[in-house]
Amino acid sequence: MARSAIAGVGVDLVEVVRIAERFERTPAMRQRIFTEAELEILDRGDSSEARARSLAGRFAAKEAIMKSLGVGIGEVDFHDLVVVGGRGSQPTVKLEGRAKKRAEELGVIEILLSISHDGPMATAMAVASRECS
Description:
The chain is α+β, with helices and mostly antiparallel strands. Helices cover 41% and strands 33% of the residues. It is built from five helices and five strands. β4 and β5 (121-132) form a beta hairpin. α1 (16-25) crosses α4 (48-68). The chain starts with a strand and ends with a strand. 35% of the residues are buried.
């Protein structure tokens, strides 16, 4: 049976209102950061507050995933990190492009993701794991 080891950990914490205001001031930023599939999930919120929390949480998730891969903004495209699921199910990560290549270089076989928000803050934690013998 194969065992896994931690290849990287990433955490990000953001203020919901600050992130929501940033996206409101620059509407094109939504398309630069999120894929169409992600935007469909984000736009399903019951209220503007729920949508803002979801948007901030998923933004934090992308930042945390980058950190777990040891890369920063610009080294991978935000669209290379697709966060699916959530809203009652565990969020999962699909890697594409340069993020997928970086994960392969590190031997990453899976990225576990947790997203949470409470009051004015949203946070995400990503753990990249690799196979070990």
